[in-house]
Amino acid sequence: MTSAPEPPPGRQPNIFALPSQTSLIFCLMVAVLVGAIFLGSLAPGPVCLWPVGLGMIFIPFRSFLARSGSEITRRGLVPAGESLAPLQNYIHTIAVQIGLSRSPLLLVRDGKLPGSPYTFGTPKHWYIAASREDAAVWQNQLACADSQPAAQARILHELYHFKTGDYWKMGYTRELLRLTFLFTGWAILFFLGWGILLVLAYQGFFELNFPELFERAGAFTPAQIQLLLQFLPASEDMEALRLKASGVNFGLVLNYLVASLFPFVLAGLFLRLFLYPKLWQVRELYADAGVSHNQKELLPFFSALSGIDLPILKHYPTVLSKIIADIHCSKDTLLGKRKTLYQYHTSWQNRLVCLCEPERVYGNWWGTALLAGGVALVFDIILVSPLTLMAVGDWPMHFPFLAVLVLVSVGYLIPTVALGRNGLALLARTLLKMTSVIVGIRLAWLLFTLGVLFSLLFLAPEFLAEILAGAFAAVARYAGQSTGLGDLDIQAFVVQAAVLNLTQVVIIFLVLLAAFASMIFLLSRLFRWYRLPEAGRRLLWAAYGVVGLPALFFGLVILPSLTTALFRPEDFLRPQSWIYPLLSLLISACGLALFLILDRKYADVCPHCGERVHEAYQVGKCCSACQKELFEWLSVEYRW
Amino acid sequence: MAERGIPVVKRSGLAKWLVRLSWSWLAFDLVLVFAAPVQYQAGEIALLLLISAWLFLSLLGAVTCLMVVYRSSFQSWLSWAVLVMVLLIASLLSGLGSGIAGPHISLLLTLLHLMSIVAVGVGTAIFLYYRDASLSMLAWFSMISIWLMVFAWKGYGNLIEIMLLSAGQPAAGAPVAWLGSLWCLAFWIIPIGIISFLGHTIRLVLREL
Q1: B154 at interface of A, judged by CB pairs closer than 8 A
Q2: Quick one: average pLDDT of B71-78?
Q3: How many whole angstroms separate alpha carbon A551 and alpha carbon B206?
Q4: What is the mean pLDDT of residues A111-119?
Q5: Helix (H), strand (E), coil (C) string for A272-289
Q6: Would you say A108 and A122 are in contact if contact means Cβ atoms under 8 Å apart?
Q7: In chain A, what's the furthest Cα-to-Cα distance?
Q8: Does A448 touch chain B (CB under 8 A)?
Q9: pLDDT tens readout for residues A619-631
Q10: Tell me, what's the pLDDT at B108?
Q11: Which helix (H) or strand (E) holds A468?
Q12: By mean pLDDT, which of A209-223, B52-66, B111-125 is the weakest?
């Protein structure tokens, strides 16, 4: 985010009042992996998918519940005991102060504990784990007036992991990613072996002469042989089975298996390499923010982070400002940025800067654009897998579009507009750049795949024909059956595919731009509803509803119409093609009408004195008439 | 607080008594194996049945008792793998024994095979009772079994034919006698694994309620 007029000294944006990045990344990861499976279960196919989807929801949750027990056993953790009772009591006191429903149990281990201190647990059992030495140091620090705030800051940081709920989001996500990799690996190996065994068994089974075999065994009487033969299919049925089995091409079955599972492996890798570290980083930043919100000053936590004693920091108050200025001036190299991408914990310097500029937790426009573009690409790849293509093949643009729209709107636009740090014109230009990056990623992938297709078309057309036949067979209802390409003109097919896909890129670009433009307008109006009753509780939900409006309109009215015109022009004028778009248009229109009515009622009026407020909101803004702060819950005060 | 780990077994008086009894049983049965008659007349079928039943049931009871008392030794993957290896070796030996050794040895090897089948079942139950490893076990077992059967088919030929022939000609099934151990493992692992999975799931859920 670019800088704008600074908020009044001491008042910082309250990131807890805005969409949680932790929750957003968590929902995204679950939606990509589990959502794709459930989408695939909507269409007929050789594999029944909804039990797999249920398993992918339930088994990671079960593993998450089991993990705390195994963590305790594996690390040799024990309850803190009497010697650390004051520390445990202090944790309990602080937990009650910050409104936690229960206080975590302190577990310790003699000797070094990697990552100490850290939190884990289940919804009913919370734990803070530390080495006994660290816990003893904390306890001693709490007893000393000079070091007590720093020790309190460390404890608050851990407790905020429970307050924000990130302990279970991290735990569940870790298990979900682990299960995805394990399951796809197992499925590939198992079904490969199963397929080979079936091929061998089919050949062996139909080669056998069972009456002769039973006689040769010498273990059955003629009556027993007749009884056993009754359990076998009749000779005509056997012949039909043999013909059916002979039509199954094992290579195509293998092709189906790999094509179905490989996209999930790719998606899992993307999530594991990029989103999972980001989730770790973001959760720490929220916990840090919780500390500063609670203590109302940064120095104690800075002391805890840096190891510099608090009295020294208080004696030299400019140390903190100088460190922050140095961090701002330091140029982050590309290698440094790439390293940051994979790190689970950001440096204490970056954590400190995020405390001074909390809006940094939302990232900048290019980071959000890369993330959104990556997610859209992952969706594209998953949704062309044989498992899901039958269900969503008619709507190739929708899911990536909706994913990008929601991700950018909730994760970037709402915070940016709410914090009022950017003017609308600047924001519009930024969104143009973001949309270009997001669509550019898709375009780059498309150009690469089209390049490969065209190269094969001109250099190895027979090989391309084989690949296409295999691709068609992979999405057939019964995996392994192939009818070849028939009289398909491969060249025309490739050209048509290129035209359709490139057209989609243009459509998505324009529709995204239009959707973002409408989002900017609606959100900027929403964050002037100063007179909305119980705004602290309702405004964010209203913002989610506002995001839903363009999503509904562009996702279910505009995109379906354009998709029909592009892929099925013969259906464009049929009434059945317009039922859902018209219904969605009606709902969108009602939503917009409601928005405009409420905008008229609540916008631009001070809730305290009733006078008009003419300027757009920014953090810390006060009414010019009564000087009372507007949307006071969107800012929090703590001293640097 | 922690899940069921490896408990410290304090052997009560009853447990010690059971241990002594079980070892005594085993010793007695070993003597009985070598002392039992080799051939039986037509009127001694009841004696044969009695001896067979005694040997089977007493060995079953003794093995089960000992494994339950010494259950702390069966809570690791290594110990479970050892039991499986014992089963494999016992099945191979019992297949060979009838051809190369006398009737007493053959009987002993057959009983060893039976005991190992029971031991694997009890060992699996103990292992999965204390360790929440049923999913891992089922996944590994299914994957390894499939590929073992693939290699068996490639190596020995039509397994359906071999297994049907071995019903009347045991020698025909000798090369793949170890497949019987596989079915035995499946017989234990699948139901015990499912029960263990459900049991541990219930335990985890109840802990949260």
Answers
A1: yes
A2: 92
A3: 41
A4: 89
A5: HHHHHHHHHHHHHHHHHH
A6: no
A7: 106
A8: no
A9: 888 888 888 889 9
A10: 84
A11: helix A461-474
A12: A209-223
Query: Are A296 and A302 spatial neighbours (Cβ–Cβ below 8 Å)?
Result: no
**Which residues of B fall within a CB distance of 8 Å from A59?**
135
Closest CA to B62 of B19, B14, B32, B99: B19
A213 shares contact with chain B (CB less than 8 Å): yes
A635 forms bridges with which residues in the sheet? A13
Task: Give per-residue pLDDT as tens, A363-380.
Answer: 888 889 998 999 888 888
A interface mutation test: which of B4, B135, B154, B161 has the most A CBs within 10 A? B161
User: Which H or E element spans position A436?
Assistant: helix A424-459
Q: Distance from B18 to chain A by nearest Cα, in Å?
A: 31
Q: Hey, what are A589's tokens? A: 């229109």
Give first-to-last CA distance, chain A, whole Å: 21
Nearest to B55 by CA among B115, B133, B142: B115
Q: Could you tell me if A11 and A637 are in contact, meaning their C-beta atoms sit under 8 angstroms apart?
A: yes
Q: Between A240 and B64, whose confidence is greater?
A: B64
Torsion sign across C-alpha atoms A560, A382, A460, A453:
positive
Helices A365-383, A424-459: crossing angle, 10 deg rounding: 40
CA distance B53 to chain A (A): 25
The pLDDT value given to residue A203: 76
CB atoms near residue A77 (< 10 Å): 22
Pairing of strands A118-121, A126-131: antiparallel
Residue pLDDT, tens place only, A20-63: 999 999 999 998 888 888 877 776 666 777 888 899 999 999 99
Say which residues have a Cβ less than 8 Å from residue A557's Cβ, sequence separation at least 6.
A581, A584, A585, A588
A209 touches chain B (CB under 8 A): no
- Residue A455 has what pLDDT? 92
CB-closest option in B143, B164, B168 to A186: B143
Tens of pLDDT along A278-334? 899 899 999 999 999 999 988 888 888 888 888 887 777 676 677 766 766 554 544
The conformation of residue A557, written as its DSSP 8-state character, comes to: I
Looking only at the bridges linking them, the beta strands covering A11-13 and A105-109 are unpaired
Nearest-by-CA chain A residue for B169: A217
CB-nearest partner of A190 from B142, B168, B208: B142
Q: How close B27 comes to chain A (CA, Å)?
A: 37
Contacts of A410 (CB under 8 A, 6+ apart): A19, A24, A544, A547
Alpha-carbon A575 to chain mean position: 37
Cα separations (Å) of A180 from A273, A475, A495, A546? 14, 22, 36, 34
Among B2, B161, B168, the residue with its CB nearest the CB of A73 is B2
Q: Are A184 and B138 in contact (CB under 8 A)?
A: no
Closest CA to B195 of B120, B117, B132: B132
Nearest to A217 among B159, B169, B201 (CB): B169
- Residues 115-144 in B contacting A (C-alpha not used; CB under 8 Å): 132, 135, 139, 142-143
| Chain B contact set for A190 (CB, 8 A) | 142-143, 146
Q: How many residues does chain A have?
A: 640
pLDDT at A485: 64
